[in-house]
């Protein structure tokens, strides 16, 4: 029996949703929907209409936060133990981020193990920002199993689509008001950058 995966990409101007049907043998995109936000309405009202009109439900729900709300760093660390990595990341982020570490929601993932340790992707967002995101989804009965970082959301689709990622690959996302690029070398992330301009800006 197919499992239905609902992925939501939410920005200040647009709501986007991708529906994926996954079985033991295959995985396919069964729908993609987009809705321009109405500035005269609340986020919850817009999202409620969006989900109702397109019958958006899923066995698994994934939500993405826009890149401009999340700080990210690729950190070289001299160890690979998950506990050590988790303990080290907040200290590594403390200097470049103008917030107290205890006020941040932080996540990390090892993207590559090296001879001297590991390259780690660390992401952080203020806890009130994450809480507001989750609360808005909860008001319309949507409870995500996980919250991701929008520039990285498309990475799993590269392998599903059979994209050749040997050599250097650039995954480019250009939205209405922001953009991002993720660089891969031999399929491993080696760089990421976001910027505050999009195709709606001159």
Protein described:
This protein has four helices and eleven strands, in the order βββαββαββαβαβββ. The strands form three sheets. The protein has a five-stranded mixed β-sheet, covered by helices on one side. Strands 5-7-6 form a three-stranded antiparallel β-sheet. It is globular and about 50 Å long. The longest helix has 13 residues, at 82-94. By secondary structure, the protein is an alpha+beta fold. Strand 1 and strand 2 (14-22) form a beta hairpin.
Write down the Rg. 18 Å
Q: How large is the count of helical segments?
A: 4
Distance between the termini: 48 Å
Largest sheet: 5 strands, mixed
Query: How many DSSP-defined strands?
Result: 11
On the 0 to 100 scale, the average pLDDT is: 85
The rough form would be described as globular
Could you list some keywords that capture this structure?
five-stranded mixed β-sheet; 4 helices; 21% helix; globular; three-stranded antiparallel β-sheet; 202 residues; alpha+beta
């Amino acid at each position: 029996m197919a499992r239905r995966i609902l992925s939501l990409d939410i920005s200040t101007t647009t709501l986007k949703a991708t529906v994926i049907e996954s079985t033991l043998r295959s995985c396919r995109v069964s729908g993609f929907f987009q809705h321009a936000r109405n500035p005269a309405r609340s986020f919850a009202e817009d999202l409620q209409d969006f989900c109702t009109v397109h019958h958006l439900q899923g066995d698994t729900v994934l939500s993405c936060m826009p890149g401009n709300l999340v700080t990210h760093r690729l950190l070289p660390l001299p160890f690979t133990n998950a506990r050590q990595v988790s303990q080290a990341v907040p200290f590594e982020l403390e200097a470049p981020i103008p917030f107290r570490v205890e006020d941040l929601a932080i996540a990390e993932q090892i993207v590559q193990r090296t001879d001297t340790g590991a390259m780690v992707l660390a992401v952080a967002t203020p806890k009130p920002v994450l809480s507001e995101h989750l609360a808005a989804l909860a008001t319309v009965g949507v409870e995500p199993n996980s919250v991701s970082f929008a520039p990285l959301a498309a990475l799993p689709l590269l392998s599903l689509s059979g994209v050749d990622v040997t050599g250097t690959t650039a995954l480019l996302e250009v939205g209405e008001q922001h953009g991002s690029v993720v660089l891969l070398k031999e399929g491993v992330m080696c760089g990421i950058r976001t910027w505050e301009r999009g195709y709606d800006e001159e």
